[in-house]
Amino acid sequence: MALPKVASPRYELTLPSEDKVIQYRPFLVKEEKLLLMAMEEDKNNGIVKAVTDICESCTFGNWDVAKAPMFDIEYVFLNIRAKSVGEVQKVKVLCPDDKKTYADVEVDLSEVNVQVDDSHTNRIVFDEGRQLGVVFKYPTIDLMKNDVDTNNVDSIMKMVIHCVDHIFEGEKIYPAKDATEKEMLEFFEELEQTAFAKVQGFFTTMPRLRHEVKVKNPKTDVESEVVLQGINDFFA
């Protein structure tokens, strides 16, 4: 006997990275189950895969999730989550005044947006005279499947290399896809520290899911402002 199916509502939103409107639906019970299982295991690859699968399914396969910037995926997933289980979400926040007490804070997910630093640019010039520099693309979810160790130079350099779109000198373009990983590594290793600081600036200022909340320490009664960043902060 074929049972009737419940129709899911459709919603629209504009991707932060481009002026493109996509449709999405709330996730289903079976999809939420996959997410909860991944979160219980607390393994980055499992959570990333669950988020990827949910975003692909809930946008009806009309959005290339694998090629999307990570902040686009976080924003879309947050909206899917809001329409699925409610826009007001309780999160546990570490109180800054004693750095050991956690307090519950209610966050309206509909008010959370991707924010961009005013100084941000993906076009970095190392030598003004030669007009030598690099154009970056944003980290995708495939790149984020593996944790980036910010204390490990090799891990950082690997992420930098994979985010290069092309290197330029004047009007000449050197696409990253045409260079070997060794060649790209040598290019960045030969930069001066001041030049590489510009590279780091691209990553530290790039768009990200960000929201400020006020938290009151239940032990000290001290109220502080805390910044939530990235998808993990909103489901702590």
Describe this structure in words.
It contains seven helices and eleven strands. The protein is an alpha+beta fold and 236 residues long. A hairpin with a 6-residue loop joins strand 1 and strand 2. The radius of gyration is 21 Å and the shape is globular. The termini are far apart. The model has no long low-confidence stretch (mean pLDDT 88).
Topology as a string of helices (H) and strands (E) = EEHHHEEEEEHEEHHEEH
Low-confidence segments, given as residue ranges, are none
Major sheet characteristics: 4 strands, antiparallel
Number of domains: 2
Structural class: alpha+beta
Average predicted local confidence, pLDDT: 88
Tally of helical segments: 7
Question: What is the rounded Rg?
Answer: 21 Å
Task: Give the strand content.
Answer: 25-35%
Percent helix among the residues? 25-40%
Shape: globular
Widest sheet, order of strands: 6-7-8-9
Comma- or semicolon-separated keywords:
236 residues, alpha+beta, 2 domains, four-stranded antiparallel β-sheet, three-stranded antiparallel β-sheet
Summarize the structure.
This protein is 34% helix and 26% strand. By secondary structure, the chain is an alpha+beta fold. The protein folds into two domains: 130 residues, no CATH class; 83 residues, no CATH class.
